[in-house]
Specification:
There is one protein chain. The chain is α/β, with parallel strands linked by helices. The protein has two domains: 171 residues, Rossmann fold (3-Layer(aba) Sandwich), CATH 3.40.50; 78 residues, no CATH class. Helices cover 39% and strands 24% of the residues. Helix 5 packs across helix 6. The protein is globular, with a radius of gyration of 19 Å.
Length: 261
């Protein structure tokens, strides 16, 4: 697959915190329409890498391109507007807002009403708000949260809070969706349902998806490509089967039983 088929590319990306090298000159790409998983031990640099892709951290070195646009060091809102959505390892919902309100917050980047229009409540503003609320309800239904519009986020079961985070990310109209440990804390039934949901997102929404995930059953079952980080360096990359059999990956992360699993 050529570089022209990649929606995201990272070249020699590096992040240092003082004297600590958290991500060490990593080359990485996400093909359009693919599900790519980023795995590795705790402290391997995965979330730091995510944070550079989404503008939370500015890289110490290297270049990041999204849809052929240089986004290196751009702020998060600018990268979101270009079409990158994400969820977080630790759920970051507005806990005292309803499910519907959380999704509407995600939609903010796509609304055209300015401050003056919002204050004056012009007909155009009211039409846009009605359309936004209907779209938010559609996203909640699509994400498996039918009938939960008016429930406070904090009152939703854990698995549904994860789905709400995805619905809010979808409200930004992403082309690339980054999921940071989306099944963490889920029971096996919730994990299986969420894995099916991720596959549906790719198939029906034509999204490219990048996941950090510790559950190897999820990674091996849904990924087109797997990249492995260890101590901030890329030590392996390939299909799930190739990575599962890589000696460096077995030694660093999976354990001796993985190759025969």
């Amino acid at each position: 697959m050529s570089a022209a088929d990649d929606i995201l590319t990272a070249s020699d990306v590096r992040k240092e915190f003082g004297g600590l090298v958290a991500v060490n000159d990593v080359d990485f790409s996400v093909p359009r329409g693919a599900i790519v998983s980023l795995i590795g031990p705790n402290g391997a640099g995965k979330t730091t890498f995510f944070n550079m892709l989404t503008g939370v951290y500015k890289p110490t070195g290297g270049r990041i391109e999204f849809a052929d646009i240089d986004v290196t060091g751009k702020p998060p809102h600018a990268i979101t507007e270009l079409g990158v959505g994400r969820t977080f390892q630790n759920i970051r919902l507005f806990q005292h807002m309803t499910a519907l309100e959380n999704v509407l917050v995600g939609m903010h980047a796509r609304l055209s009403s300015g401050i003056i229009g919002s204050i004056l409540r012009t007909p155009g503003v009211r039409r846009e708000e009605r359309g936004a609320r209907e779209r938010a309800r559609e996203l909640l239904r699509y994400s498996g949260l039918r009938g939960r519009d008016d429930e406070l986020a904090r009152n939703l079961p854990y698995g549904d809070q994860r789905r709400l985070e995805v619905a809010r990310a979808l409200a930004t109209e992403p082309k690339l969706l980054l999921l940071d440990e989306p099944t963490a804390g889920m029971n096996p039934r919730e994990t299986a349902a969420f894995t099916d949901f991720v596959g549906k997102l790719r198939a029906e929404q034509e999204l490219s998806i990048l996941m950090i995930e510790h559950d190897m059953k999820v990674v091996m079952g849904i990924s087109d490509r797997v990249t492995v980080l260890d101590y901030g360096e890329k030590i392996a990359e390939g299909s799930p089967t190739e990575v599962q059999r890589d000696e460096r990956v077995i030694e660093a992360y999976l354990g001796a039983g993985a190759a025969s699993a």
